[in-house]
Amino acid sequence: MRQNRANRPSNRQKFRSDTGDIHYKNHAKVLHFKEVPKEELERIKKDIREKSRAEQRKLTVVFIVVAVLVCTLMFILFY
């Protein structure tokens, strides 16, 4: 384990070329978010929350149906 610690990216040497550029760069892109009016933002949030609630209800119903089927099968097989 200790041998691998020396090879971590944070511990590696950062090389520079003749021009002084760092070859070991963080290539993260800068994110640009779209500007949205407050009313539209609230509507978008509301839509996302409604979709999330609907998905949770759907999963709950599926879980209950599967649980009832499993219980019924166990009752039939072991009775």
What does this structure look like?
- This protein has helices spanning 2-5, 38-78.
- The mean pLDDT is 82.
- Helices cover 57% and strands 0% of the residues.
- With 79 residues, the protein is mainly alpha-helical.
Summarize the structure.
With 79 residues, this protein is mainly α.
Keywords:
79 residues, mainly alpha, 57% helix, flat
Break the fold down into its secondary structure elements and pairings.
Blueprint: H1 2-5, H2 38-78
Radius of gyration over alpha carbons? 28 Å
Biggest sheet descriptor: none
The structure class reads mainly alpha
Mean of residue pLDDT?
Answer: 82
